[in-house]
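Morning F.,

Quick status update on the modeling queue. The single chain you submitted on Monday has been processed. Sequence for confirmation:
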Amino acid sequence: MTLKSCAGHPLMAEAVLGWGRQTVARGLAESRSGILCLGAPAACSGRKRWEEHSPQVAQALRHLAEAHAPQAPPLRTSVTSTRRTAQAAWQARREQG
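Structure tokens below.
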């Protein structure tokens, strides 16, 4: 949205969209480089993400989300969306075992 609506300016995104300009700048950097920027607590704590602890569950949830994602997304982006809530996804996963 920042690239499309605000010409890639974090300060303008803050004024127009109400988003924090530091967060927007980080998102633009991630988009430009393709590298996920972790904050200091997440990067330095040594704690693994839950996806790393249970990759099978993460993969199953990913498949559930993809099944409910629109087949023809309206925007050309690498981020997919689904109308399924997190609670509904966990419930469906529990039903699968």
